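Predict the assembly for these two chains.
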Amino acid sequence: GEDVEQSLFLSVREGDSSVINCTYTDSSSTYLYWYKQEPGAGLQLLTYIFSNMDMKQDQRLTVLLNKKDKHLSLRIADTQTGDSAIYFCAEETGGFKTIFGAGTRLFVKA
Amino acid sequence: GAVVSQHPSRVICKSGTSVKIECRSLDFQATTMFWYRQFPKQSLMLMATSNEGSKATYEQGVEKDKFLINHASLTLSTLTVTSAHPEDSSFYICSASEIRRGTEAFFGQGTRLTVV
């Protein structure tokens, strides 16, 4: 079935880079997304990548997609305390459903 | 980007009452809308998929008589939680997409439901 997995926690120091990894199972996925959720808030779309791309860069964010291994990563350069949040990886499947990972809680230490 | 408006953002209701949550696509025609539920500290779970003008397709384990979904127009879908119970307290979020154009889905702001 469709499944998205990601590690639950990541802790980094302010100024370092954060890399959040995700794996998915549906090879027919069309879009892959990264969402940010701050405490008590809804989802904020950070970035997305088409399944036929390998990389997408958007300011401090870099998304890498390895379609062969079904592996997606999000790199946040120069991580700030304001980046502390839960980051969800999600894939839009061939059936146009979006399947979410469990979320990675990013802790940024000052 | 496209805008999806979800209303209300927060609602408190008494056990046994029903609550309606609206999801509107403001600048595009949403042929398909999705309803998700997020339990505390957990990921979002897809509850159902609704296509305009037809009955919603519910995911396994979701009670269709309890969570009534109506997608009567291309810009509006509603989720009604009937006979609300404290266990229904959760964060509900909708997304909408224009399938015919193959665009990605856009999410509403979410509704935090508390049943007391």
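Chain B has a mean pLDDT of 87. The first strand of chain B starts at residue 4 and ends at 7.
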